Amino acid sequence: QKLTFSLKIAISSSLSKIHLNVSHGRLCASSTSFSQRNNSSSANLKVDHDQTTGVAVMHMQSPPVNSLSLDFLTEICITLEKLEMDKGCRGLIITSSQPKVFSAGLDILEMYGKSPERCGEFWKAVQEMWLKLYGSNMVTIAAINGSSPAGGCLMSITCDYRIMADNPRYSIGLNETMLGIVAPFWFKETMVNTVGHRNTEISLELGLLYKPAEALNIGLVDQLVPEDQVLSAATQTMTKWLAIPEHARQITKSMMRKSTIEKLRSNREADIQNFVNFITKESIQKSLRMYMEMLKQKKA
Ligand SMILES: CCCCC/C=C\C/C=C\C=C\CC(=O)SCCNC(=O)CCNC(=O)[C@H](O)C(C)(C)COP(=O)(O)OP(=O)(O)OC[C@H]1O[C@@H](n2cnc3c(N)ncnc32)[C@H](O)[C@@H]1OP(=O)(O)O
């Protein structure tokens, strides 16, 4: 049965509108914009799309710490799909509107005390976000204006380039082992593809979180700038990347990432089963509970 629905998105200019049509599971965007800037918002995301430059800035605004819940992941995936389909969007900058945090990573509450079915649904959404970002044809830049542990770091390293605020209070890394959990193979491979095998081995085994200067030193981020310049630096870098012949850049990106992406694509169900079996274990649930208590105590 043909599935068709239209979603009207309010845009800053009253003259502008975008229609999203979902047909046979494909999402297509057609724009009849008379303005050069499209701003759209959903519950936890604000997207500023400058039609003149072809660059969209996606601001994560899911309080308090942009943790990636099933709902938030779904929102991110819908937005990414929409931007990917929009020929007028060639570059994406991802940043945070929350103070001091880029993203706290996966929402721990989605992994604690939930049914296997719900855990499976959650993991599928995590996979989907990674597939969309790592396989994007757009130039993607993470403007990391706060701490970015675990899934927040993953999100950053799926991007083509990372600019971080030079503030020693912030940290970034795949710290899963500190929670008593294990980064799956596609988290690990994204990290290897970014900082190499040895750095990844040390980093994952010890669950390290790096200060900005350390992250720059191992190549986990590409550039440090003063906090108030993160977005402008990302915009400047984007201009350089968008000047490269597009087709050649896209094919090169795909060549670099294809084998990692294929490995997950062809094993999605098994990967979900692995996750569900692992995360619902009594011992893992206990580790997660202790970690959450530790987070609360840190506050007190
Ligand atoms: C062999 C088979 C393998 C198969 C694969 C198996 C498993 C893989 C599984 C999972 C992979 C997971 C990756 C992840 O992303 S796990 C999440 C890891 N995240 C963290 O460790 C970050 C924890 N948070 C922090 O360190 C700090 O909150 C932060 C530095 C981000 C911000 O500090 P700040 O001081 O500003 O804020 P807090 O007071 O600490 O937090 C405010 C509020 O938010 C709650 N919270 C924080 N992080 C999370 C989170 N990730 N999920 C849910 N909730 C979070 C925190 O508890 C506070 O709540 P409250 O006390 O105000 O109620």
TrEMBL record:
It catalyses: (3Z)-dodecenoyl-CoA = (2E)-dodecenoyl-CoA; (3Z)-decenoyl-CoA = (2E)-decenoyl-CoA; (3Z)-hexenoyl-CoA = (2E)-hexenoyl-CoA; (3Z)-octenoyl-CoA = (2E)-octenoyl-CoA. Key enzyme of fatty acid beta-oxidation. Able to isomerize both 3-cis (3Z) and 3-trans (3E) double bonds into the 2-trans (2E) form in a range of enoyl-CoA species, with a preference for (3Z)-enoyl-CoAs over (3E)-enoyl-CoAs. The catalytic efficiency of this enzyme is not affected by the fatty acyl chain length. Pfam families: ECH_1 (PF00378). Pathway: Lipid metabolism; fatty acid beta-oxidation. The keyword Acetylation applies. It is found in: Mitochondrion matrix. InterPro entries: ClpP/crotonase-like_dom_sf, Enoyl-CoA_hyd/isom_CS, Enoyl-CoA_hydra/iso. One of its GO terms (molecular function) is delta(3)-delta(2)-enoyl-CoA isomerase activity. PROSITE patterns: ENOYL_COA_HYDRATASE. It comes from the Eukaryota. It is an enzyme of class 5 (isomerase). GO terms for cellular component: mitochondrial matrix. This is Enoyl-CoA delta isomerase 1, mitochondrial. One of its GO terms (biological process) is fatty acid beta-oxidation. Its EC number is 5.3.3.8. Keywords: Acetylation, Fatty acid metabolism, Isomerase, Lipid metabolism, Mitochondrion, Transit peptide. Belongs to the enoyl-CoA hydratase/isomerase family. Homotrimer. The keyword ATP-binding does not apply.
